[in-house]
Specification:
Layout: E1 4-12, E2 16-21, E3 24-29, H1 32-37, E4 43-52, E5 57-62, H2 65-75, H3 82-91, H4 94-103, H5 106-110, H6 117-134, H7 146-158, H8 163-176, H9 182-192
Antiparallel strand pairs: 1-2, 1-4, 2-3, 4-5
Helix pairs in contact: 2-3, 4-6, 7-8, 7-9, 8-9
Length: 193
């Protein structure tokens, strides 16, 4: 219903912002990720998601469309409401959340307050394929030396290889040999693909 709000930033705190849009102040619930992404400039634009409940009408704001999409995917999981989804996005960055879901890392999701084993497993089961498909152009890795991996992956994609298979092979090679150069990473990945 309301896709985005652009206006003057009136109030900003870690849980919500108030944006004045032509004399009407809209309160939008935000994640810590969005909070840290918003500049303290007067002008502010956030992508929104509108939730209607029996007891409240709530607006959620996101600096990036990808975070809003992840929020929508999370609330589509049975047992995950908008408050829980915001808790996940405040505890983990969107990239870390996606990486945990794609890799099936139950412990990372369980580390979020209010997420138990069953909910974490349900999130992974329901969203792993959706997130893998919708984010095949992005890199999700928890490997410490990310720039080397990104450079190698970029080169492999330019050579015509698909991102996801190349990413998996690169991750495996970097776990086995963390001190390789970009050139060596590419050579070893080419042998494995």
């Amino acid at each position: 219903m309301i896709a985005q709000i652009k206006g003057k930033l009136i109030e900003k705190n870690p849980a919500y912002v108030v944006i004045d849009c032509n004399g009407v102040g809209y309160q939008l619930n935000i994640s810590l990720h969005t909070y840290s992404s918003i500049d303290n400039n007067e002008s502010c634009m956030l992508y929104t998601h509108f939730v209607v409940r029996e007891d409240a009408h709530l607006l959620y704001g996101f600096k990036e469309k990808s975070e809003r999409e992840l929020f929508r995917q999370l609330i589509s999981v049975s047992g995950v409401g908008s408050s829980t989804a915001m808790m996940i996005l405040s505890s983990l960055s969107p990239d870390d959340t996606k990486a945990a879901i794609i890799s099936g890392n139950v412990n990372t999701l369980k580390s979020v307050k209010g997420i138990g084993l069953k909910t974490a497993e349900r999130i992974i089961i329901d969203l792993r394929d959706k997130i893998s498909k919708s984010n095949s152009t992005e890199i999700f890795s928890v490997v410490s030396n990310n720039t080397l991996k990104e450079e190698a992956l970029s080169a492999l994609v330019m050579l015509g290889f698909s991102k996801l298979p190349a990413d998996k092979v690169l991750t495996k090679i970097m776990q086995e040999n963390p001190n390789l150069s970009v050139e060596e990473l590419i050579k070893r990945t080419l042998k494995s693909l």
